Amino acid sequence: MNLSDHISSNPNIMLGKPTIKGTRITVESILRKLAEGFSIDDILKASPHIKTTDIQACIVYAADVIQYEHIIPAA
């Protein structure tokens, strides 16, 4: 999946947070809805202008971001 087809970040939109391309729907908001128990179908019904692949891209984006996260042990 080419994330740039689905996810964009613009400092003038949602303070630069990553969003579904062409919308003001943040990756964070999609992930929070999924974590709260919303299904993909629930999200699509609430936002019919996005696609399943956009939601999947949000998940891939999050996985890619934490892939390189470094945990620093507390002293």
The CATH architecture category equals Orthogonal Bundle
Low-pLDDT runs of 5+ residues are none
- How many distinct helices? 3
CATH overall fold name: Arc Repressor Mutant, subunit A
Give the strand content: 5-15%
Amino-to-carboxy terminus distance: 40 Å
The biggest sheet amounts to:
2 strands, antiparallel
Specify the structural class.
Answer: mainly alpha
Explain what this protein looks like in three dimensions:
By secondary structure, this protein is mainly alpha-helical. The protein has one domain: Arc Repressor Mutant, subunit A (Orthogonal Bundle). The protein has helices spanning 27-35, 40-46, 52-67; strands spanning 7-8, 19-20. Strands 1-2 form a two-stranded antiparallel sheet. Helix 1 packs across helix 3. The longest helix is centred in the last third of the chain and has 16 residues, at 52-67. The radius of gyration is 14 Å and the shape is globular. The termini are far apart.
Question: How would you briefly describe this protein structure?
Answer:
The chain is mostly helical. It has helices at 27-35, 40-46, 52-67, and strands spanning 7-8, 19-20.
Q: Can you give keywords for this protein?
A:
75 residues, mainly alpha, Arc Repressor Mutant, subunit A, two-stranded antiparallel ribbon, 3 helices, 43% helix
Question: Which helices and strands appear, and what pairs or packs with what?
Answer:
Layout: E1 7-8, E2 19-20, H1 27-35, H2 40-46, H3 52-67
